[in-house]
Amino acid sequence: MKARDRISVAVMLFGMLFGAGNLIFPVHLGQLAAGNVWVATLGFVITAVGLPLLGVAALGASRASGGLELAQKVGGTWGIAFMSVLYLTIGPFFAIPRCASVTYTVGIEPLVGSSWLPACTVVFFAIAVLLAMRPGQILTWIGKVITPLFLVFLAVLLITALVNPLSSVDAAAASANYQTNAFSNGFFEGYNTMDVLAALAFGGVVVDVIRRLGVSDGGAVAGEVVRCGAVSCAIMVVIYGALALVGAQSVGALGVSENGGIALTQIATAYFGPAGLVILAVTVALACLKVAVGLLVSCAEFFREVLPKGPSYRAWVLLFAVFSLVIANAGLTRVIEYAVPVLMFLYPLAIVLIGLALAGRWVSVPRQVYVAVVACVTVTCVLDFLNGLPEVARAPFEGLLAGASAYVPLFDMGLSWLLPAVLGVVIGLVAHTIATRKAA
């Protein structure tokens, strides 16, 4: 690939990964961490940038055409089921409607009031559908138009805030949890971006774009996927650091806000007055629009692939857009309550798939290892799912969860899957050895 094409693909991938949530989380992190902002940001970057980069690298290392091919190393049916749940959860059930609602609540509502949600979401999805209908042009729209425009507006806000800080990072004390555990809190806060799942979902789009640019050799495609992923993640590191620092420099003057959206609104207003709300509205709208377009394209391409006799690509785009529009206006809060535990179920499985795919770059990983690791990790994923349910739905399982908290290592830290993953590797290798000897 030419250098300018590689940069365009990297910017496109960054644009699909970096949404309004990525904009909001580091600002709030900076306010909570205050003087410990860099320690907390280091932890945040490891999970919010490092893990998605590994996800992209896993697709490259395994030469998989997307997350589905990677997941099917466990089994064909399991791979389709896993990726279907993943796409539906981060797509029409959760992330796509959230893109529209966040655009309104953070960017538009402060300007026009609280009665314009239906009209704004209709306009939002009309634009998203228009852009998603031509997947071959996604590089142009996201990589060369929307994302660069987003970066310009974001740069206006960030550079102004960094050059003229509202206060020093030491003007206020760090919140209690960030006084002694800044790194670990930042580390786990990075999970909230859920970009590991997005990396698997968007991987197929990136591979398709690279092939459209004339790269046909499998090894060359794999290498370009990794290079583009590294560039996009480098952009994310710079922006995360700047957002966290701006948040830390604002807390002495503004105090700790309830969330990052409120913090950004206060910061933009402090620097630009009413015009700051316009700058923020455009920034958030562009951030959400590019992610929504990427998700619509990815979801439609996936279901067209696994259901070749089903609806056409454009029909899937329309179906997901209409469903997301309804959710954004009618029941997003309730859906999010149940989407979060599903994400907690999917996240460890995605991480172990990525880890095994990366290991396959240097050593042969037999299918028995994939199956055993996924089977062992699934047990703890079920516990994480139950623990993430809303309080009413979780009530019948309180006894089981109390036992898990007491006896399952690392359960309270959200890392209960680590030891089962290691156990699965051992079981899988033993099973592979036995099967090999029998065959011999």
TrEMBL record:
Cellular component aspect of the GO annotation: plasma membrane
UniProt KW keywords: Amino-acid transport, Cell membrane, Membrane, Transmembrane, Transmembrane helix, Transport
Protein's UniProt keywords contain Cell membrane: yes
Regions that span the bilayer: 7-25, 37-62, 74-96, 116-133, 145-163, 196-213, 225-251, 271-303, 315-332, 338-358, 370-389, 417-435
GO BP terms in the entry: isoleucine transport; L-leucine transport
Entry-linked InterPro entries: Brnchd-chn_aa_trnsp_Livcs
GO molecular function, one term: L-valine transmembrane transporter activity
Record localization: Cell membrane
Topology of this chain in the membrane: Multi-pass membrane protein
Pfam families reported for this sequence: Branch_AA_trans
Family, per entry: Belongs to the branched chain amino acid transporter family.
NCBIfam families cross-referenced by the UniProt entry: livcs (TIGR00796)
Name of protein: Branched-chain amino acid:cation transporter, LIVCS family
